[in-house]
Amino acid sequence: MIGNESPLFTGKAGEDPSDWILEFKRFVIASRINIIAGAGEVAGRAEAYNLGISYIVGEAKTWYENEIKSRNWQCDNILDGTGMNNLNAIQALNNDALT
User: Fold this and answer.
1) What pLDDT band is residue 1 in, cutting at 50, 70 and 90?
2) Quick one: which of 17, 43, 83, 84 could link to 77 by a disulfide (CB 3.0–4.6 Å)?
3) What are phi and psi of 6, to 5 degrees?
4) Three-state DSSP class for 56?
5) Does the predicted TM-score (pTM) go above 0.70?
6) How large is the angle between the packed helices 42-54 and 17-30, nearest 10 degrees?
7) What is the distance between the terminal CA atoms of the chain, rounded to a whole angstrom?
């Protein structure tokens, strides 16, 4: 992990959340954090999640705290894809609101 640092995400105009997520994924892989499903690495996934949150700053951090973290997400239809589609639609709306 020496010399490898994930970029910060501020949510400022012109900053693409998708690009930041790709960069963060590269950072996680380079850091050798095992997040592969079924690998039994729940701790690795939690570590990656917490690291990701730590690289969100400023207005984006405030938005995350108010709009995502404080919500009680209930996904009744997650297994048939309906719940995931709804979450993707919500995420797209929120991403548009950031820029």
Assistant:
1) very low
2) 83
3) -75, 140
4) strand
5) no
6) 130
7) 31
